[in-house]
């Protein structure tokens, strides 16, 4: 997208605003598909938690994607967006058995990641096919908060618990049709990924009726100029060879599944915010925008680096700024960033704002969540309206007379 397009969107729909470029999403989907073209049966299940706007889900469905969900609400959104139940995989963590049964009734693929629930579900519903999430005890990911395959992780059934797992399957006679892992996000070293896949292949040999093996995702995308990313083409070649060899040994053509989220939508997203104040202090120059970690929490939560550009003055002299928000706490998007000279009223563009940005937004400080716009075929389409004060108080119950008598008693005393 061009700066002129983004500035027009900010002017038309106000700011802050999230913008998503459908062309980039499509190209990323095709890139990953082509990387694994040597696999006869490939399934890409888009991770809805990355960006769950129903228009984005409809776009993914139109591309032939499946859907990776982690809550019953995401399952319902997927069905509303047109996904068939059989193309949705449901991988919760720490939810009630009742929620899992609710998802099973909707006909989606169930993925279970702990022995207790596996035994309960298998005892009650032995005929419903179940995938098992394995923890391979492989540390991978760009931040400890998004590394989920290590030994201390709450996710998955430990590979050391395989004998117990097999005993549950034998006693319940349940149908295990898939094996799954997810080691973390921002995986750079594909050798780590390939090592974990070997563990998954060994585990899969214990089950005779598999339909698919799910390798999760976690591909790293570049966050700044010159940044490194996962070489999905090299991974595709090496993992395809390993997968096809395993299928021959297994005696059955299985489906290779992935659950990309960030890889598909991160680079397609732009977050636009207006500069309210440029403040010189004894140590730095602050550029304060009309947003905060209530709209984009990743820099504060994960230390995520989002490139920040001044699209109102792209040719201006570069200076150093600390870009901060309006939340009444430390609320920093980037320290000492080299940005074209900023004036009050300028529009700053935060890159890589498609994944885990709007979906993690909140109403902290009683601020409204921003609007979302889809850039498709050269046109800007509003896909979520900016919240209003009515939205903020919609579900609050104002018990108006609750404290009236107390005030009266205090006044009398």
UniProtKB/TrEMBL annotation:
Gene3D superfamilies from the UniProt entry: Alanine racemase (3.20.20.10), Lyase, Ornithine Decarboxylase, Chain A, domain 1 (2.40.37.10)
EC numbers: 4.1.1.20
N6-(pyridoxal phosphate)lysine PTM positions: 49
UniProt KW keywords: Amino-acid biosynthesis, Decarboxylase, Lyase, Lysine biosynthesis, Pyridoxal phosphate
Boundaries of every Orn/DAP/Arg decarboxylase 2 C-terminal domain copy: 18-354
Pathway connected to this protein: Amino-acid biosynthesis; L-lysine biosynthesis via DAP pathway; L-lysine from DL-2,6-diaminopimelate: step 1/1
Protein's UniProt name: Diaminopimelate decarboxylase
Organism from which the protein derives: Maribacter aquimaris
């Amino acid at each position: 997208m061009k700066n002129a397009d983004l500035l027009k969107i900010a002017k038309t729909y106000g700011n802050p605003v999230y913008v998503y470029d459908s062309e980039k999403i499509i190209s990323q989907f095709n890139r990953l598909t082509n990387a694994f073209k040597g696999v006869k049966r490939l399934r890409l299940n888009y991770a809805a938690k990355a960006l769950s706007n129903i228009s984005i889900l409809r776009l993914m469905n139109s591309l032939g994607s499946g859907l990776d969900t982690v809550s019953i609400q995401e399952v319902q959104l997927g069905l509303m967006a047109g996904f068939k139940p059989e193309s949705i995989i449901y991988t919760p963590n720490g939810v009630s058995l009742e929620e899992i049964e609710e998802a099973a009734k909707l006909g989606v693929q169930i993925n279970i990641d702990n022995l207790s629930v596996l035994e309960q579900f298998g005892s009650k519903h032995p005929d419903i096919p179940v995938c098992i999430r394995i923890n391979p005890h492989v540390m991978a990911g760009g931040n400890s908060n998004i590394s989920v395959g290590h030994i201390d992780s709450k996710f998955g059934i430990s590979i050391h618990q395989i004998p117990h797992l097999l005993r549950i399957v034998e006693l319940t006679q349940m149908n295990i049709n898939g094996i799954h892992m997810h080691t973390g996000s921002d995986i750079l070293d594909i050798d780590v990924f390939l090592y974990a896949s070997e563990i998954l292949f060994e585990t899969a040999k214990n089950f005779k009726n598999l339909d698919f093996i799910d390798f999760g995702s976690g591909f790293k995308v570049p966050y700044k100029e010159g940044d490194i990313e996962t070489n999905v083409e090299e991974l595709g070649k090496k993992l395809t060879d390993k997968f096809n060899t395993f299928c021959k040994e297994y005696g059955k053509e299985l489906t290779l599944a992935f659950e990309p989220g960030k890889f598909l939508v991160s680079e397609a997203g732009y977050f636009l915010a207006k500069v309210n104040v440029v403040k010189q202090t004894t140590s730095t120059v602050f550029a304060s925008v009309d947003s905060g970690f209530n709209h984009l929490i990743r820099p504060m939560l994960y230390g995520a680096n989002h490139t920040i550009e001044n699209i109102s003055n792209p040719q201006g002299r570069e200076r150093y700024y600390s870009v901060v928000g309006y939340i009444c706490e430390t609320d920093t998007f980037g320290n000492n960033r080299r940005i074209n000279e900023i004036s009050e009223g300028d529009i700053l563009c935060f890159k890589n704002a498609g994944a885990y940005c709007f979906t993690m937004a909140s109403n902290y400080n009683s601020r409204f969540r921003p609007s979302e716009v889809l850039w498709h075929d050269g046109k800007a389409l509003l896909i979520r309206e900016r919240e209003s004060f009515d939205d903020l108080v919609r579900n609050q119950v104002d018990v108006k007379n609750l404290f009236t008598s107390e005030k009266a008693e205090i006044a009398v005393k």
